Amino acid sequence: MWACTKCGRIFKKEKQPHSCNKIPLKEHFKNKEKAEELFNDLVEQINNKIGKCKIISLPCCIHLFGKYDFLALLPKKEGLEVRFSLNKKITKPRIKQTVPLSTVNFKNCLQISSEGDIDKELLEWLEESFHLKD
User: Fold this and answer.
1) 5 within domain boundaries
2) Residue 100 sits in which domain range?
3) Is residue 1 situated within a structural domain?
4) Please, are residues 113 and 76 in contact by the beta-carbon 8 Å criterion?
5) pLDDT of the chain along its 134 residues, tens only?
6) Domain annotation covers residue 10
7) Long-range CB contacts (< 8 A, 24+ apart) of 104-113?
8) Which residues on adjacent β-strands are paired with residue 79?
């Protein structure tokens, strides 16, 4: 693993091309109060139930890192778009899109619109993603 000395992001390959640009976290939540509440709830649950994570706010989205980048969040007016990697394709109705990242890993995408969406099933998937590269 390699950590960029300028931005602190962690990558699989040394000197992996990326942008070091960051923006203040609050920028993502302008006029998106519901998304901010859901974000705070989700991060609290991850920190308390899965493991401590670091938040990196990029212009495109918010990344959460444990030992690795395991979760991307895109604040929307009515909630959060959640993207996480697993070594399996999830076929549940709440998964809106699954994209192959390699022959063994898939990016799974879903929406969180209420606190009830941050449930045991989601936290189990996120825990698996958090530990995927251990």
Assistant:
1) no
2) 22-130
3) no
4) no
5) 777 787 776 766 777 777 777 889 999 999 999 999 999 999 999 999 999 999 989 888 999 988 788 999 999 999 999 999 999 999 999 999 999 988 889 999 999 999 999 999 999 999 999 998 74
6) no
7) 105/132, 107/83, 108/83, 108/84, 109/81, 109/82, 109/83, 110/81, 110/82, 111/76, 111/79, 111/80, 111/81, 111/82, 112/38, 112/42, 112/79, 112/80, 112/82, 113/38, 113/78, 113/79
8) 76
